[in-house]
Amino acid sequence: MTVNAEEEKGIIGRVYEDGSPVIYKFVNELPDKSLMAKLTWLTVISWKYDGSSNNGMPLEDENQRMITLEDAIEDHIETDDVLRHVYSRTGNGLKELVYYTHDQDHFLALFNSALRDHPRYPIEINFYRDEEWEDFKRLLNDFSNAANK
Asked: Which CATH class is domain 29-135?
């Protein structure tokens, strides 16, 4: 596991899965407790792709589509009242954009509205109840342990 600091935006870290690099990007801190108490649904947007010809990473064209999706979410949905981005991971044939939200139906309505003029993306969205933000805490802990080695 490798960790690099990014300009005030957080951490870019690398792990290996089945010999392929997987890149994580995240802010290296929990938000305040009031926000965590409000956003209790872990929201995982998964995009599976064929990374066999690029060391597990998406090809440029597909990567640009992934960035367009992520930018649309950030520009049109992400607010402290609705959605907070916690991390993204890319590699080994899978891109995941991971957020916390307060309401699944409200998020999906905003998501569909924000992306109505976009081409259909090959994604899957899953929600998990995570009131204590255990998923994100585990990621922070994993990278904290790597940085201390």
From this structure: alpha beta
